[in-house]
Amino acid sequence: MSLDSFKCRKTLKVGAKTYTYFSLKAAEKNGLKGISKLPYSLKVLLENLLRFEDGRSVTKADIQAIAKWVKNRGRDEKEIAFRPARVLMQDFTGVPAVVDLAAMRDAMKGLGKDPKKINPLAPVDLVIDHSVMVDFFANSKAFRNNVNLEYDRNGERYTFLKWGQGAFDNFRVVPPGTGICHQVNLEYLAKTVWTKTEKVKGKTVTYAYPDTLVGTDSHTTMVNGLAVLGWGVGGIEAEAAMLGQPISMLIPEVIGFRLDGKLPEGTTATDLVLTVTQMLRKKGVVGKFVEFYGPGLAHLSLEDMATIANMAPEYGATCGFFPINAETIGYLKGTARASAQVALVEKYAKAQDMFWTPKAPEPVFSDTLELNLATVVPSMAGPKRPQDRVELGNAAAGFAKVMADEFKKAEELGKRFKVENANFDVGHGDVVIAAITSCTNTSNPSVMIGAGLLARNAVKAGLSSKPWVKTSLAPGSQVVTEYLDSSGLQKDLDKIGFNLVGYGCTTCIGNSGPLPENISDSIRKNDLVAAAVLSGNRNFEGRVNPDVRANYLASPPLVVAYALAGSLNVDLTKDPIGHDRKGKPVYLKDIWPSAKDVAAFVRKNVTRKAYASRYKDVFKGDKHWRAIKVTKGMNYAWDQKSTYVANPPYFEGLSMTPAPVKDVEGARILGLFLDSITTDHISPAGDIKAASPAGKYLNSRGVEKIDFNSYGARRGHHEVMMRGTFANIRIKNQMVPGVEGGVTKFYPGGETMPIYDAAMKYAETGTPLVIFAGKEYGTGSSRDWAAKGTRLLGVRAVIAQSFERIHRSNLIGMGVVPLQFREGESWQTLGLKGDETVTIRGLAEGLKPRAAMVVDITRADGKKASAEVLCRIDTLDELDYYKNGGIMPYVLRNLAKAG
C-alpha cells in the first residue's frame, strides 16, 4: 500500500464500477506544483511512483524529483524504481528467460529453499512468433508446409514452453501461427488502462492505473502508439521484473517531436517513419524518451502512430510515446475491446489530464524538433542501417554509389551472369528477396491494403514478379489475412507470388530461408552484391540472408514494386517497372493506388468483427499445439540429449553470500571493434554455418546441417549460443584486418582462430578477457545472449566509446562491467593492436556508480599506456547486480533470504 505522501488516493466511478486511483490533479494541489506541465510519458512514471511509494524503493524525494523535472528538464541524474504492470516476451528471447526461471528453481532447491518462490509476480505473456522460416514460398501450400516444418524443427522448444505455461503462475503463451508479439499486444493484449483487484484492510479494492510494460524485444515500443508506456529490455532484466524487482532507471530527458500538417498523396506511414528515424538518429536520443505532439497528430491513424512508435530502437530512443487521444478510443472500440474497458480508458485519461486534444496545452520538453508531414516523400533505407534513408528517386543512384564506396565494384554494375537450369541471368543490385514482413508495417492496414491494391493493378496490367525474386507475405496477425481475404486482395497478391508464408517476423529476424540453390550458387560464384527489399525494422549486415549484402527497408507497396522491377538499378520514379501484354511500358505511377481507394478498402474490410473472430481463442492454438504432450512438475526434467534446451551454468556453486569482486589483472583482448557493433554482430539470430564452432558442436551431437535451424531458435542451449557469440559472418575484428567473421588472434603467438576457440584456450589458463569497441556498441535488438555469451566466454569488461542502452544494462545484468572512454579517446588513439595485456583496478574496493577509473595497458614490447574511463554502472541497483555476479543471482539470493 502506498504511503500516499501527497494525499492523492481518490476514487473514480465508471458505469457501475468504482476504481481507486492516484490522482495527479490532487498531487499537484498537495505539493507537486507544476506537474500538469510534464510530458504525458512522465505523468505515467509519476503515477507509478505515487502508487508504489513505500519509503524504501520509492521515496517522497523520488516523487518530488519528477516534479522538479519541469525546471531541470531531466538533466539531473536521479535514479528511480519503475514497476511495470506486465511483461511481454517473444519466443527467441522468451525461451532462454523461461530456461533461466527453470534453472533458478533448481538452484533454489539446491539452497534448500522452496522452488515455488520462483514464479512470475507480474503477468507475463509470451507470443511465439520468431521461429517460422520461409522455406516454402510463392504457392498455395507455402503456409501449411512452413508450419509443419516449424513444428518439426522446434518441437523441443515448444514442449518446454508448454511445460512453462502449466508450471508457472501468471504466465500465458500465445501459440505459433497467431501473429507477431507487438501486433498481438497492440490488437489484443494491451488495455491502455490496467486494473488490479486486491484486499486492503479486509476490503476489496480495484485499482486503475496506466498500462505499462517491459518486453524482451526492443520493438515492445510499438504499443507506445496506444499510449502504453513500455520498452525493450534484456531477458535477464525482464526476469527480474517478473520476480517483483523494479526496473532501475534514471529520470529521462524527453524530446518533444512536433508534427504539423498531413501526409501528401503518394506517401505512406513507412515513408514517414523512415524520415522520423533519420531525423532522430541525427538528433541523438539514445537513453531518452521521445514524445510526439502537435496538430499533426490529428491527421494520423492509431496504426500510423504505432508504426512510428515501433521504430524507437532504430532512432535510438527508449520509447516513442503518443498520448491517449480520440484515435486511441476509436481503435480500442474497433479492435473489439470490451465497452466497459473503453469507457474506463476515456474517463481515467480525462480525470488525470492524460487525454490529448488539438487544444491541449503543450507540455514542457527537454528539447524539441519539428516535422511538417506535408514534406514527407517516398523513401527507403539502406543498404545496412535503418537510419540511412534515401528518397525513392535517388535509390538507384544511391545503390550505384554504394557499389563504388562499400563494395568497390562500380565497374561491374550492369554485368549479368547466367543462372544454371534457368532462362534468366542475375547481376549486381538484383532484388532476390522481396518480403512483406515485420511488425513495423504489417500492423498498419493502410500499407497492407496499399500493397494489395498495387498487386491488383499490376495483375491487370499483365505484370509479374521477376523469376529470381523470392517473394513472401508474413502478416503480423491473422486479422490481416481476414481483411486481405474479405477484400479479395490476397488473390491478387498470390498471383505475383506474395502468398501467405506464416505469421511471424520471418525475413526481418533472419528467417528468410534459403534462396533457390541455382540462384544462391550464381551469387556466390560471381561474388554478386544481391539485394533484399523488406518492409521490416532492421537491415543490418548479415541479418536477412547470408547471400544478400544490400538490404533496404521499404513500405509494403514498394516491396511489391521491387518484386516487379527485380532490381535496385531501376529508378521507379522514371523508369518502367515492367511492360504490359502488348509490350507497352508500365510505370509505378500507373499502378500506385490512391489514398482515397486505400481508405475506402480499409473502411469496408477492417472490421471489429474480424478482430473479435480472430482473437476469440487466442491461447488455444492449432492442432499441432494442442497435440503437444508435456510432463507436469514444479521443476523441469532436463533432457540431456536436447540441443535446444539445457540447464545453464549460471548458478553452479551458488552460495547465499556472493564472492568478493576482483580487479581485472593481466587480461587479454578478445576483440577490437569499430562503431555500431550490433547485438546481431555479437549474437546472430540467423543461419548456423557448418564450419563454425556451433555447427561443429551440433554435428558432434548427431545433428545434420539440414536440421541446424537458427541461432535464434537455439537460444535455450548455452553450449550452442556460447559458440555463436561474435560469430556473425559480417563482423570485423580489427585484430584480424581485412577478414570478415568471428575470428581473433590468440596471444602469445598470434595464431588466428575462431573467437570461441580462443576464449576456451584462455579459460584453460584462467586468463580474463576484455573487448574494445567504438561508438554505439550493442545497437539493435534487446538480445540477452549478446551479454550472456560475452560472460560465458570469460569477458570481464567491455571498453567502448558509447553503449546502446539495453546492451549496457544487459552486460551489468550478467556481471560484465561496461567502461566508456572519455570524449575524443578510443582504442585507436591508444594505438592498440590486440597483443597487449590489460589491467583494470578499482572494481574490488570502493566502486561507485559512474566512477572514474583507469585502464592500464602493457604492450607486447613492455611499454605502458593508460586511459581514464567512466564506469557505466549507472545506479546503485546496478551496482548490487554487478557485485552479485549478475541480476539473476541477486534476485535468487534475495528470494531465498525472504524465507
From TrEMBL:
The family this protein is said to belong to: Belongs to the aconitase/IPM isomerase family.
Any Pfam family: Aconitase_C
Top-level EC class as recorded in UniProt: lyase
Gene source species: Aestuariivirga litoralis
Taxonomic lineage from the root: Bacteria, Pseudomonadati, Pseudomonadota, Alphaproteobacteria, Hyphomicrobiales
Keywords: 4Fe-4S, Iron, Iron-sulfur, Lyase, Metal-binding, RNA-binding, Tricarboxylic acid cycle
Superkingdom field: Bacteria
Protein name as catalogued: Aconitate hydratase
Reactions catalysed: (2S,3R)-3-hydroxybutane-1,2,3-tricarboxylate = 2-methyl-cis-aconitate + H2O; citrate = D-threo-isocitrate
An annotated GO BP: tricarboxylic acid cycle
Residue ranges occupied by any Aconitase/3-isopropylmalate dehydratase large subunit alpha/beta/alpha domain in the UniProt entry: 75-566
